[in-house]
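Table S4 entry, Terminase large subunit.
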Amino acid sequence: NPALGVSKKVEDLERKVARAKNNPNDLTGILTKDFNIREVTNSAWLTFEAINNESTFDIKDFAGTYAIGGADLSITTDLSCATLLFVDPETEIRYVHQMYWLPEDNLRKRVDEDMIPYDKWYDQGLLRLCSGNTIDYSDITDWFLEMLNDFDITPLWIYYDNYSARYWVDEMEAYGFKLVRTPQGARTLSLPMQNMGADLEKHKINYNNNPILKWCLTNTGVETDRNGNIVPIKNQSPKRRIDGTASMLDAYVGLFDSYEQFLRAM
């Protein structure tokens, strides 16, 4: 760095390097700002030890409560996922309840080609099938209504990615749900993703040992810009989905935006 020893002190740089050794998320900022190396890098997000949490809960325990919703919707081959996020005000443990969807016509192909046990997850009730070869967004609406009508679980807000179909948003709002559009860029996602990662590492997120979400989390990489902002990306092949991560992160954006208001409602 040409400024080293002039406007930048060697001791300060040494401290930054030492910090990056303990926190990989700081590495990109140091490489780009202090060593003039490439602006964006991709890397794994979390270790399996950080992700793995075998704690479980019963969704019935949250009957009559409020939640924050998240939705990551696809059109054809990708999973679609909806999330309900709860917080225990006393312990601040986060509880995540999810449902996944896949087009029925694509199930066999996805199992055979991707070598992922979607059929087993369907048998376990963790995944639902949409008729035909595309995702029927009304099936996702039905799930939110099911949570409301069967368990009296009310999502105060449902944060959705901005690629979602407008007619789904209109349909949900017609039922009285409050939807919040969530741009999928670093400005919106970086801080909530950092918070979510820290909570996962502390095992503060009980996701009911859901194998689909666990799989999505292990597939999640991180793209870091020169300012240290992060966004999720697929860490491996396109067959490895991250939709569960994206859906939970959308809900985390809501938690980040309205944490105190949400706790008061709880």
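DSSP finds eleven helices and ten strands in the chain.
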